[in-house]
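User: Design a sequence. Structure:
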């Protein structure tokens, strides 16, 4: 049985499913997946917990299944956070170095200076992700400690989220006797699992299309530049099918997964499918193209919203590596082709990678966030010194913050 300090658990609390993925970290830093538990999610809307009881129940069942498969007792998890309450800002801070050489303390101070910004009272800082440091006007520095200079500047991406949403996630986990090691923005987690370093360097857009939300993150020169959440996902496609095909949500979701496509031209006109009816009526035959005709405009609309957001962010022309689509809805037939057409850039499907063990069971884009949470956790564990300059302290602060949100009672 795996030792506890080697076990990493990613708990992806999604709108459609809860996925609990368990991995074991080897001494060489390799991460092997040893178990997974999934359960349909019942208490979320558009990425946000709206029913604690139902969410707790779904988490419990997913975690139990994962524990059984992995043969470990799960005590703490890395979990994701999403929803349209999330905001991303670029900010920067400047300090004078104390001894003409940049120390850890200077870096901590400059990050603190960068986070000093006016955020609404109901929002809290979730992440401060350093983009680059500038020492005496020399820009593009990623590892500033030990370098000479008197003026240290940091450019950072600050991500904030609604306090109550974060609190509810922690509450649900605590109710299942789970500690939350850290809470990670879902697209930041997914990016750990599906993006390659060279893509982050030359510029890439990550688009995670789940059930309730579409999460976007833009990377350039190795770090995150822009984040955005659109409260539309695969559930909206399913709802359109419910209305268009007059069938139940369950059947519509299954039909979508099996026969759905978002490009009518991909579906042969002679293909027929059977639509189960409601109210005891007999199933009806229908051309498969009808489904594509319903789905195509909705996906197009979503892609246009993403395109507008990219234009607003100013990064549309700078992402040389194009776009990576992930999340369950990226599996819809024709997604990559339609995205290439609308964005006029190279697009690929992002499946989780960078792990060993039971790779096949987590190879679906649906598990990008869950696997990414594990890789995020591993990066923190494996490299505490390097992370100290930025994320390690952040990690400690996340704890302090979470304790703060709950008062002194936890
Ligand atoms: N093969 C498929 N074709 C089309 N859609 C699919 C397929 N498989 C899954 N989906 C859709 O993907 C969605 C679920 O994706 P995912 O598991 O990534 O969402 P989630 O993480 O639970 O939700 P969110 O991230 O929005 O909170 C559902 O809407 C489901 O219908
Ligand atoms: Mg998701």
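Assistant: Done.
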């Amino acid at each position: 049985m795996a030792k506890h300090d080697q076990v990493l658990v990613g708990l992806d609390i999604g709108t459609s499913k809860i996925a609990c993925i368990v991995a074991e970290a080897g001494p060489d830093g390799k991460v092997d997946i040893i178990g997974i538990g999934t359960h349909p999610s019942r208490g979320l809307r558009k990425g946000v917990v709206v029913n604690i009881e139902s969410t707790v129940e779904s988490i419990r069942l997913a975690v139990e299944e994962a524990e059984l498969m992995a043969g470990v007792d799960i005590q703490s998890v890395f979990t994701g956070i999403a929803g349209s309450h999330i905001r991303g800002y670029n900010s920067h801070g400047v300090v004078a170095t104390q001894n003409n050489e940049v120390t850890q303390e200077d870096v901590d101070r400059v990050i603190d200076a960068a986070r000093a910004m006016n955020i609404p009272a109901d929002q809290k800082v979730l992440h401060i992700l350093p983009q680059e440091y500038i020492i005496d006007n020399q820009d593009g520095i990623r590892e500033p400690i030990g370098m000479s200079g008197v003026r240290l500047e940091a450019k950072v991406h600050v991500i904030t989220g609604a306090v109550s949403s974060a609190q509810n996630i922690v509450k649900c986990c605590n109710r299942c006797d789970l500690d939350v090691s850290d809470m990670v923005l879902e697209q930041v987690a997914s990016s750990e699992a599906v993006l390659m370093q060279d893509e982050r360097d030359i510029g890439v857009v990550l688009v995670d299309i789940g059930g309730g939300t579409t999460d976007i993150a833009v990377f350039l020169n190795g770090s995150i530049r822009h984040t955005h959440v659109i409260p539309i996902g695969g559930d909206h496609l399913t709802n359109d099918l419910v209305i268009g095909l007059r069938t139940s949500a369950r059947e519509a979701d299954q039909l979508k997964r099996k026969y759905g496509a978002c490009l009518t031209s991909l579906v042969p006109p002679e293909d027929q499918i059977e639509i189960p009816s409601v109210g005891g009526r007999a199933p009806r035959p229908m051309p498969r193209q009808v489904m594509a005709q319903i789905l195509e405009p909705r996906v197009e609309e979503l892609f246009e919203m993403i395109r507008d957001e990219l234009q607003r962010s100013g990064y549309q022309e700078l992402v040389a590596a194009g776009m990576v689509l992930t999340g369950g809805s990226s599996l819809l037939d024709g997604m990559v082709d339609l995205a290439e057409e609308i964005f006029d850039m190279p697009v690929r499907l992002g499946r989780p990678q960078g792990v060993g063990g039971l790779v096949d069971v987590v190879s679906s884009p649906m598990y990008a966030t869950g696997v990414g949470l594990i890789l995020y956790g591993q990066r923190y564990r494996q490299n505490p010194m390097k992370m100290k300059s930025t994320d390690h302290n952040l990690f400690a602060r996340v704890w302090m913050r979470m304790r703060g949100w709950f008062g002194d009672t936890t």
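The CA atoms of residues 303 and 342 lie 7 Å apart. The domain at 87-160 is CATH 3.30.1490.110 (Dna Ligase; domain 1).
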